[in-house]
Description:
alpha+beta
Amino acid sequence: MVEITIRPIEPGDTVTGLSLGHADFVPLKTYLQKDAKAHQEQSLARTYGVFLDDEPLRVRAYVTLVCGEIASEPGGSGVSGLGHGDGLHYPYRQYPAVKIARLAVDHRLQGRKLHIGTMLVDLSVGIAKDVISPSVGCRFIVVDAKRRSVGFYERYGFTALDTPANRERDEPVMFIDLYKVPVQG
């Protein structure tokens, strides 16, 4: 049994050695090594690391959260799929959201039934729903999903924005409505 701790990264944490298994994910590794601690210190982003009991200071997976938005297309009547049919009336082009800016799990931990990626999304949803949304307007979580990760986010309940431009993107925008996420417990 592996003991897992998820917490904000700290200056003394080891951020090297993360192996993500595919060249598409190199920017995620680079961000952790070069920018995550500085962005944390400057309140530009919050990065939560996954630590295992065998190396309690080495980041083995992480998620970075920032403020974000989902923008509707100019002249459109909102963003397709965002609360329509729920009585949602929001007269602005930008819908407030928390953005999962980065999420990475060491490939050596994938497939071990630890579900670390899901735990990190659960954490993100919990922070958005229980901490941010009650304090400021925030209805959605958004992510620019790498093509290789779209299925992961779909299984969680994220939906791709249904616009021609988004369907063509290398990293399509996906979102989840916090009002539709079941209460954990």
